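Hi all, posting the design record for the shared folder.

TITLE: backbone redesign
STEP: 1 of 1
STRUCTURE INPUT:
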């Protein structure tokens, strides 16, 4: 099988990519693209199992999880011997030529985010045998923010405000870098933030960047709010209005709110009711749930989660810096520790 090396420095729309012709070696991050992805395979794959190979190269070891886009496996890359994570996208997307093209374009623009805390995508392509569309990425060790919060909330506990500031700092910087390049995440939520175990280097990673953009079916599901919670989605996006990077600013605010409060912005089982509240209700006072925080944090919630994007924080650093200032005024150990954190430059 021939592989093209596709780098961020290659101008979009180069037809040579489709023919398998060798391109100039890319600088910095690399994405590997299998020409077999064009045209799209017609044999739709069933769900994958451990022990199977993907694209004749990645040996699936164990399933790590499932989400709205597909299955995630820990795997061995037989070409390099390194351990990777493989996300096998939903089989229903395989017959969609446009989807693979969109995924390819998006993956190439994301190469510009190499060196930030965005999870590194090594390759994507389509299995020649069964048509499965997959992404190979760095295998992270630890847990998602969603898992961490759910575990804490089970025992009526929360992350400290200081730990939230530290965990979100790299995410804020990565998002700001992306926004300056005109790239929007679109699906920021606790399950897309990964907290790496301290023994594996610690820190946070941002996952599934731009995947919501390429996955039309997911967008449709979200618009109908059949699956998932609308608690992290900006009102303008829920209304299908034009939007910009401030949808990510909102989502980051909603993630931080959940972590601080120990519950989502509008708790509830019924997604339609939650959706209506996200679109209409005044934002709650966080100090009702967290009296140890300064009242400044209530102003922060209003600005972070403003219904109208023009009243919202302009960018992720100003949202984080606003929170830092509020936490520093609190009456808890975080207030003292937060004094040693510096504001993030925009
Ligand atoms: N690169 C990775 N390394 C290690 N584990 C990962 C990696 N990517 C995803 N996972 C794990 O796989 C699980 C499923 O991820 P996935 O993104 O498919 O679902 P999700 O984030 O819960 O929902 P959604 O599809 O809406 O994003 C995650 O909860 C995470 O634990
Ligand atoms: Mg995800």
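Okay, here is what came back for every position:
SEQUENCE:
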């Amino acid at each position: 099988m021939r592989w093209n090396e596709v780098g961020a420095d290659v101008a979009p729309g180069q037809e040579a990519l489709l023919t398998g012709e060798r391109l100039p070696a890319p600088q910095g991050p690399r994405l590997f693209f299998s020409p077999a992805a064009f045209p799209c395979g017609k044999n739709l794959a069933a769900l994958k199992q451990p022990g199977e190979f993907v694209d004749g190269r990645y040996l699936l070891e164990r399933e790590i999880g499932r989400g709205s886009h597909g299955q995630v496996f820990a795997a061995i890359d037989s070409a390099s011997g390194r351990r990777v994570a493989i996300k096998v996208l939903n089989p229903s997307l395989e017959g969609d030529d446009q989807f693979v093209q969109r995924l390819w374009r998006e993956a190439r623009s994301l190469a510009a985010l190499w060196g930030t805390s965005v999870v590194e995508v090594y390759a994507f392509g389509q299995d020649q045998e069964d048509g499965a569309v997959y992404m190979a990425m760095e295998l992270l060790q630890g847990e998602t923010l969603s898992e961490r919060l759910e575990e804490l909330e089970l025992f009526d506990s929360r992350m400290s405000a200081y730990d939230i500031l530290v965990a979100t700092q790299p995410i804020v910087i990565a998002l700001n870098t992306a926004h300056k390049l005109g790239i929007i995440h679109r699906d920021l939520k606790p399950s897309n933030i990964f907290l790496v175990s301290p023994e594996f280097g610690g820190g946070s990673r941002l996952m599934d960047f731009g995947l919501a953009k390429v996955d039309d079916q997911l967008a449709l599901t979200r618009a109908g709010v059949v699956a998932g919670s609308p608690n992290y989605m900006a009102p303008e996006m829920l209304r299908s209005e034009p939007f910009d990077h401030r949808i990510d600013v909102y989502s980051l605010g909603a993630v931080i709110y959940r972590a601080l409060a120990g519950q989502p912005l509008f708790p509830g089982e019924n997604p339609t009711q939650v959706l209506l509240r996200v679109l209409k209700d005044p934002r709650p006072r966080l100090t009702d749930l967290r009296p140890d925080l300064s009242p400044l944090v209530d102003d922060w919630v209003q600005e972070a989660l403003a219904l109208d994007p023009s009243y919202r924080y302009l960018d992720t650093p100003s949202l984080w810096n606003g929170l830092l200032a509020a936490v520093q005024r609190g009456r808890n150990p975080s207030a003292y520790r937060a004094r040693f954190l510096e504001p993030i430059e925009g």
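COMMENT: Residues 161-180 form the longest helix (20 residues).
Let me know if anyone wants the other runs.
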